[in-house]
């Protein structure tokens, strides 16, 4: 599998990673999926302390025992469970980040995290304090690099200007092209990589996604989605399915170092990974997709 450098870091990530959120909570099948992914050349595993209240990190930790050197391990922080309070609370404070990293390390059964990501962010956050926390964790050797997971251009700009992030995880697909307006050009200019999540738009862009398209997606109507799906179907080749075409669209952007589609079954996993060996899109194919899929714009958080 082709590997790309993540920003200006020393991390070389396979262009198809594994978003671990969809693995479920049963240990054996989830570990088997992760092992198969690693055997097939995936090295970027993305999890978060939020997923299944830490269970996802525990499963990933079990799966990488004895294989830690094969993995670029990414997890996230910022969502905090407060005893007696329902749900999660947003906490990007330095104190919480420096506490939470130890809990993640314990669940992941490792002594360092390759990429520690802020799991969100707003302009109301104590951004300087948040950055200080990540920088201190780097100096302490608990993390190698850090990034943010955000779709908000205003927040991304703050971290680009004030921090040493190497990546931004951003929702990006044929039907969510918002990043093309501001985020992708900025990050390409600054040599900061995108890790693209949702490249198949929760299955809307898969061959079997007709029923999902019927429900709409973001601000697209079902009719618009079916039109886009028809266009993608016209670009399917013998070695590239509709979903793989969608994945290749995200990878065609120079700022995108990797995509992290989720997988809850072996079939999904193998299909996603096979996109790595499918034909890249030609400039004409990229143009055809853009003509059929109007570029949506950010209307908030500018």
UniProtKB/TrEMBL annotation:
CDD domains: AKR_AKR11C1
The protein's name in its UniProt record: Aldo/keto reductase
Domain of life of the native organism: Bacteria
Transmembrane intervals: none
Organism: Paenibacillus cucumis (ex Kampfer et al. 2016)
InterPro entries: AKR (IPR020471), AKR2_Oxidoreductase (IPR053135), NAD(P)_OxRdtase_dom_sf (IPR036812), NADP_OxRdtase_dom (IPR023210)
SUPFAM superfamilies given in the database record: NAD(P)-linked oxidoreductase
NADP-dependent oxidoreductase domain residues: 15-291
Pfam families: Aldo_ket_red (PF00248)
